[in-house]
Specification:
The chain is globular and about 50 Å long. 41% of the residues lie in helices and 22% in strands. It has a five-stranded mixed sheet, with helices on both faces. It has a two-stranded antiparallel ribbon with strand order 4-5. The protein starts with a strand and ends with a helix. A hairpin with a 3-residue loop joins strand 4 and strand 5 (47-50). Helix 2 crosses helix 3. With 240 residues, it is α+β, with helices and mostly antiparallel strands.
Length: 240
Protein backbone atom coordinates (compact mmCIF):
# COMPACT_ATOMS: atom_id res chain seq x y z
CA UNK A 1 0.00 0.00 0.00
CA UNK A 2 1.43 3.36 -1.08
CA UNK A 3 0.26 6.51 0.70
CA UNK A 4 1.25 9.98 -0.40
CA UNK A 5 0.43 12.41 2.38
CA UNK A 6 0.27 16.18 2.37
CA UNK A 7 2.20 16.51 5.61
CA UNK A 8 4.25 19.64 6.12
CA UNK A 9 5.12 18.81 9.71
CA UNK A 10 1.65 18.32 11.19
CA UNK A 11 0.57 14.98 12.62
CA UNK A 12 -2.99 14.79 11.26
CA UNK A 13 -2.37 15.17 7.54
CA UNK A 14 -4.83 13.55 5.17
CA UNK A 15 -3.73 11.11 2.51
CA UNK A 16 -3.17 12.97 -0.75
CA UNK A 17 -3.10 9.68 -2.67
CA UNK A 18 -3.79 6.04 -1.82
CA UNK A 19 -2.63 3.21 -4.07
CA UNK A 20 -2.18 -0.54 -3.91
CA UNK A 21 0.80 -1.92 -5.82
CA UNK A 22 0.85 -5.67 -6.48
CA UNK A 23 4.26 -7.07 -7.38
CA UNK A 24 3.91 -10.78 -6.68
CA UNK A 25 0.57 -11.62 -8.32
CA UNK A 26 -0.28 -14.18 -11.02
CA UNK A 27 0.85 -11.91 -13.84
CA UNK A 28 4.36 -11.47 -12.38
CA UNK A 29 4.23 -7.81 -13.35
CA UNK A 30 3.24 -4.68 -11.43
CA UNK A 31 -0.46 -3.92 -11.05
CA UNK A 32 -1.56 -0.58 -9.63
CA UNK A 33 -4.90 0.30 -8.05
CA UNK A 34 -5.65 3.95 -7.26
CA UNK A 35 -8.46 5.04 -4.95
CA UNK A 36 -10.31 8.28 -5.58
CA UNK A 37 -9.90 10.27 -2.40
CA UNK A 38 -13.57 11.36 -2.31
CA UNK A 39 -14.76 7.74 -2.23
CA UNK A 40 -17.29 7.51 0.61
CA UNK A 41 -16.41 4.51 2.75
CA UNK A 42 -17.03 3.06 6.18
CA UNK A 43 -13.96 3.77 8.33
CA UNK A 44 -13.61 1.28 11.22
CA UNK A 45 -14.26 3.07 14.50
CA UNK A 46 -14.83 6.43 12.82
CA UNK A 47 -18.00 6.04 10.76
CA UNK A 48 -18.64 7.04 7.14
CA UNK A 49 -16.28 9.52 5.51
CA UNK A 50 -14.03 10.09 2.52
CA UNK A 51 -11.37 7.41 2.25
CA UNK A 52 -8.49 9.87 2.59
CA UNK A 53 -9.76 10.87 6.06
CA UNK A 54 -8.84 7.39 7.35
CA UNK A 55 -5.17 8.38 7.36
CA UNK A 56 -5.85 11.44 9.54
CA UNK A 57 -7.88 9.33 11.97
CA UNK A 58 -5.49 6.41 12.37
CA UNK A 59 -2.51 6.50 10.06
CA UNK A 60 -1.52 3.76 7.65
CA UNK A 61 -2.95 0.96 9.80
CA UNK A 62 -6.45 2.43 9.63
CA UNK A 63 -6.14 3.02 5.88
CA UNK A 64 -5.20 -0.63 5.51
CA UNK A 65 -8.21 -1.72 7.60
CA UNK A 66 -10.52 0.59 5.66
CA UNK A 67 -9.42 -0.79 2.29
CA UNK A 68 -9.72 -4.35 3.57
CA UNK A 69 -13.25 -3.91 4.93
CA UNK A 70 -14.62 -1.93 1.98
CA UNK A 71 -12.80 -3.51 -0.96
CA UNK A 72 -11.55 -6.90 0.22
CA UNK A 73 -7.85 -6.14 -0.33
CA UNK A 74 -5.42 -7.28 2.37
CA UNK A 75 -2.17 -5.44 1.74
CA UNK A 76 0.95 -7.00 3.23
CA UNK A 77 3.04 -3.87 3.59
CA UNK A 78 2.73 -0.12 3.46
CA UNK A 79 4.90 2.88 2.66
CA UNK A 80 4.08 6.54 3.20
CA UNK A 81 5.81 9.30 1.30
CA UNK A 82 5.46 13.01 1.89
CA UNK A 83 6.22 15.61 -0.73
CA UNK A 84 9.84 16.20 0.29
CA UNK A 85 10.64 12.48 0.35
CA UNK A 86 9.14 11.92 -3.09
CA UNK A 87 11.31 14.65 -4.61
CA UNK A 88 14.49 13.30 -2.98
CA UNK A 89 13.89 9.72 -4.09
CA UNK A 90 13.13 10.73 -7.70
CA UNK A 91 16.18 12.98 -7.94
CA UNK A 92 18.38 10.27 -6.41
CA UNK A 93 17.17 7.51 -8.70
CA UNK A 94 16.82 9.54 -11.92
CA UNK A 95 19.40 12.31 -11.93
CA UNK A 96 18.51 13.22 -15.53
CA UNK A 97 14.77 13.32 -14.83
CA UNK A 98 11.79 11.13 -15.74
CA UNK A 99 10.30 11.10 -19.25
CA UNK A 100 6.67 12.27 -19.17
CA UNK A 101 4.31 13.35 -21.93
CA UNK A 102 2.42 16.11 -20.10
CA UNK A 103 -1.29 16.15 -20.95
CA UNK A 104 -1.75 19.90 -20.95
CA UNK A 105 -0.35 23.24 -19.84
CA UNK A 106 -0.57 23.58 -16.07
CA UNK A 107 0.26 26.49 -13.81
CA UNK A 108 -2.55 27.25 -11.35
CA UNK A 109 -1.43 26.66 -7.74
CA UNK A 110 1.80 25.00 -8.89
CA UNK A 111 5.31 25.87 -7.72
CA UNK A 112 6.61 25.39 -11.25
CA UNK A 113 4.60 25.81 -14.49
CA UNK A 114 4.31 22.79 -16.78
CA UNK A 115 3.96 22.91 -20.56
CA UNK A 116 2.12 20.30 -22.60
CA UNK A 117 4.19 17.66 -24.37
CA UNK A 118 7.09 15.21 -23.90
CA UNK A 119 9.76 16.31 -21.44
CA UNK A 120 12.00 15.22 -18.60
CA UNK A 121 10.78 16.14 -15.11
CA UNK A 122 12.83 16.37 -11.96
CA UNK A 123 11.36 15.39 -8.58
CA UNK A 124 9.67 18.73 -7.88
CA UNK A 125 8.11 19.04 -11.33
CA UNK A 126 6.95 15.43 -11.33
CA UNK A 127 5.31 15.99 -7.95
CA UNK A 128 3.50 19.09 -9.22
CA UNK A 129 2.28 17.17 -12.27
CA UNK A 130 1.00 14.30 -10.11
CA UNK A 131 -0.84 16.63 -7.71
CA UNK A 132 -2.46 19.06 -10.15
CA UNK A 133 -6.26 19.03 -10.09
CA UNK A 134 -7.26 22.62 -10.80
CA UNK A 135 -9.23 21.83 -13.95
CA UNK A 136 -12.63 20.49 -14.95
CA UNK A 137 -11.59 16.87 -14.30
CA UNK A 138 -10.56 17.46 -10.69
CA UNK A 139 -9.51 14.30 -8.91
CA UNK A 140 -10.32 12.06 -11.89
CA UNK A 141 -7.61 13.64 -13.99
CA UNK A 142 -5.22 13.76 -11.06
CA UNK A 143 -5.56 10.02 -10.37
CA UNK A 144 -4.93 9.28 -14.04
CA UNK A 145 -1.78 11.43 -14.00
CA UNK A 146 -0.58 9.80 -10.78
CA UNK A 147 -0.86 6.42 -12.48
CA UNK A 148 0.97 7.84 -15.50
CA UNK A 149 3.77 8.99 -13.18
CA UNK A 150 4.11 5.56 -11.55
CA UNK A 151 4.22 3.90 -14.98
CA UNK A 152 6.85 6.39 -16.14
CA UNK A 153 8.98 5.65 -13.08
CA UNK A 154 8.87 1.93 -13.83
CA UNK A 155 9.69 2.62 -17.49
CA UNK A 156 12.84 4.48 -16.47
CA UNK A 157 14.14 1.23 -14.96
CA UNK A 158 15.04 0.15 -18.50
CA UNK A 159 18.10 2.32 -18.00
CA UNK A 160 20.94 0.16 -16.55
CA UNK A 161 22.21 3.11 -14.53
CA UNK A 162 18.83 3.45 -12.81
CA UNK A 163 18.82 -0.26 -12.02
CA UNK A 164 22.21 0.07 -10.35
CA UNK A 165 20.92 2.98 -8.27
CA UNK A 166 17.73 1.16 -7.26
CA UNK A 167 19.00 -0.46 -4.02
CA UNK A 168 20.42 2.88 -2.85
CA UNK A 169 17.25 4.81 -3.73
CA UNK A 170 15.09 2.13 -2.09
CA UNK A 171 17.17 2.36 1.07
CA UNK A 172 16.88 6.14 1.03
CA UNK A 173 13.10 5.93 0.62
CA UNK A 174 12.91 3.49 3.55
CA UNK A 175 14.91 5.86 5.70
CA UNK A 176 12.78 8.89 4.89
CA UNK A 177 9.36 7.22 5.09
CA UNK A 178 7.18 5.37 7.55
CA UNK A 179 6.90 1.82 6.28
CA UNK A 180 7.00 -1.86 7.19
CA UNK A 181 8.43 -3.13 3.88
CA UNK A 182 11.36 -5.54 4.32
CA UNK A 183 14.16 -5.14 1.79
CA UNK A 184 13.87 -8.90 1.26
CA UNK A 185 10.44 -8.29 -0.30
CA UNK A 186 11.92 -5.90 -2.86
CA UNK A 187 14.75 -8.31 -3.62
CA UNK A 188 12.33 -11.21 -4.01
CA UNK A 189 10.19 -9.24 -6.45
CA UNK A 190 13.00 -7.61 -8.40
CA UNK A 191 11.98 -9.53 -11.54
CA UNK A 192 8.43 -8.15 -11.35
CA UNK A 193 9.83 -4.65 -10.83
CA UNK A 194 11.97 -5.01 -13.94
CA UNK A 195 8.95 -6.25 -15.92
CA UNK A 196 7.25 -3.01 -15.01
CA UNK A 197 9.61 -1.26 -17.44
CA UNK A 198 7.41 -2.59 -20.24
CA UNK A 199 4.18 -1.38 -18.66
CA UNK A 200 2.11 -1.30 -15.48
CA UNK A 201 -1.51 -2.49 -15.46
CA UNK A 202 -3.76 0.15 -13.88
CA UNK A 203 -7.21 0.36 -12.30
CA UNK A 204 -9.02 3.30 -10.70
CA UNK A 205 -11.54 2.72 -7.89
CA UNK A 206 -14.47 3.22 -7.91
CA UNK A 207 -14.44 1.40 -11.23
CA UNK A 208 -16.22 2.79 -14.27
CA UNK A 209 -20.04 2.67 -14.11
CA UNK A 210 -20.04 1.61 -10.43
CA UNK A 211 -20.43 4.96 -8.70
CA UNK A 212 -22.51 8.13 -8.46
CA UNK A 213 -22.16 11.55 -6.87
CA UNK A 214 -23.62 12.07 -3.42
CA UNK A 215 -23.31 14.15 -0.27
CA UNK A 216 -21.75 13.32 3.07
CA UNK A 217 -23.37 14.07 6.43
CA UNK A 218 -21.77 17.53 6.40
CA UNK A 219 -22.81 18.34 2.84
CA UNK A 220 -19.49 17.60 1.12
CA UNK A 221 -19.51 16.11 -2.38
CA UNK A 222 -18.53 12.42 -2.31
CA UNK A 223 -18.46 9.37 -4.56
CA UNK A 224 -20.98 6.69 -3.62
CA UNK A 225 -20.03 3.27 -4.96
CA UNK A 226 -21.41 -0.21 -5.49
CA UNK A 227 -19.32 -2.21 -3.05
CA UNK A 228 -19.94 -5.64 -4.56
CA UNK A 229 -19.25 -4.46 -8.11
CA UNK A 230 -15.98 -2.83 -7.08
CA UNK A 231 -14.81 -5.82 -5.09
CA UNK A 232 -15.46 -7.99 -8.13
CA UNK A 233 -13.66 -5.56 -10.45
CA UNK A 234 -10.64 -5.58 -8.15
CA UNK A 235 -10.59 -9.38 -7.90
CA UNK A 236 -10.77 -9.70 -11.69
CA UNK A 237 -8.00 -7.14 -12.16
CA UNK A 238 -5.57 -8.76 -9.71
CA UNK A 239 -6.26 -12.31 -10.89
CA UNK A 240 -5.21 -11.76 -14.52
Amino acid sequence: MLIGNDSRGEDNARADSIMILQLDGPANKPKLISFMRDTYVSIPGAGDNKINASYAYGGADLVRQTISENFGIDSKYYMTLNFETFEKVIDTLFSNGVDIDAEKNMSKNLEVPIEKGPQKMDGLTLLQYARFRMDEEGDFGRVRRQQQVISAIFSELKNPISILKLPYAAGKAMGYSANDVPLSFLAKNSFSIMKGASGVDRLSVPAEDTWSYGQSFDGASVLLFDQQANQQAIQNFLAK
